[in-house]
């Protein structure tokens, strides 16, 4: 009985339940330890967990947030990258570069001049050929030029003529020095045009000189010497007058043939555009006719057209070249297939007309202008 009473009066210990076991398992994985009671065993104190975790949370909340990462730099434009690649030079450095280029160009002219001295006699025979042909056509026999002063032949044949020849021979080298002076101010892509620029410029300059020698100068000379034929005036041409006229015509036409390169260069520097050139083409044609009238040695309309028509064609060639440059800048392509097809059709039509003239109307092909005679 006493034992049963003792059992009824004494408080029973709470048996460990599953929640206690779970709390024990959690306590082993967390940073707090459970509170121990001698009479009731183990139990979880929720305030102990709160007291352990709240300070850490508060410390995290009190800590300032990390600064945001700096924004990435904006992507550089292609033109900006090319501008960074440009050479920066002061005014004195530009003058020094200009001096160096001029000295190099003069050295090239000197080498070409020395080379031309070894062929002075052969060169003079080539230069004299248009005068000889013109005098023979006018019935002057012998068709010789006249020397007036003792130093006239020496100064022309051995000084001026080699100098003129050296200008044409050294033109690629001189143009290379010109390009070397202006290229630091161009973009990287535009610097790759060095070889086409030099070849085109030198080729057009030489082509202009050949056009003046083979076509313009010959017809102009025949016209000038034949004016006084019906007036009982015998032509007598001095060496100095003839050579001065020859230099003016050949150099003038050679420089005029640089018109496409000038137009392309203005477009390269963004000083002109194909649309602007086409819209103001009538003013350009008027200026070309005025220049042709100045360069032409004769006042007749035929020789004026001989100079003006090629210059107008060269103007539109330069506009086409500038248009190709603009297309390349805009990453567009020109329809070369259709253009070449149109050129082929035109050439076939011209060949058909020439064949018809030869086979049906009895024309013959000759090596000089107008290339077809009856």
**Helix/strand class:** mainly alpha
Reading the helices and strands in chain order gives HHEEHHHHHHHHHHHHHHEE
Instruction: Tell me the helix content.
Output: 55-70%
Distance between the termini: 160 Å
Query: What is the typical, i.e. mean, pLDDT?
Result: 76
Radius of gyration, in Å, reads 47 Å
Low-confidence stretches: 1-14, 16-43
Order of strands, main sheet, comes to: 1-2
Which word captures the global form?
globular
Annotation, overall tally of beta strands: 4
Figure out the total of helices.
Answer: 16
Q: Main β-sheet, in a few words?
A: 2 strands, antiparallel
Question: Which band does the percent of strand residues land in?
Answer: under 5%
Structure description:
The protein is an all-alpha fold and 374 residues long. The chain has 16 helices and 4 strands. It has a two-stranded antiparallel sheet. Strand 3 and strand 4 form a beta hairpin. Helix 6 crosses helix 7. The N terminus is likely disordered.
Topology:
Blueprint: H1 2-9, H2 18-29, E1 35-37, E2 41-43, H3 46-62, H4 78-85, H5 91-117, H6 120-137, H7 152-169, H8 171-182, H9 188-191, H10 194-225, H11 239-256, H12 259-268, H13 274-279, H14 281-295, H15 301-329, H16 336-361, E3 364-365, E4 372-373
Give me a quick take on this structure:
The chain has helices at 2-9, 18-29, 46-62, 78-85, 91-117, 120-137, 152-169, 171-182, 188-191, 194-225, 239-256, 259-268, 274-279, 281-295, 301-329, 336-361; strands spanning 35-37, 41-43, 364-365, 372-373. By secondary structure, it is an all-alpha fold.
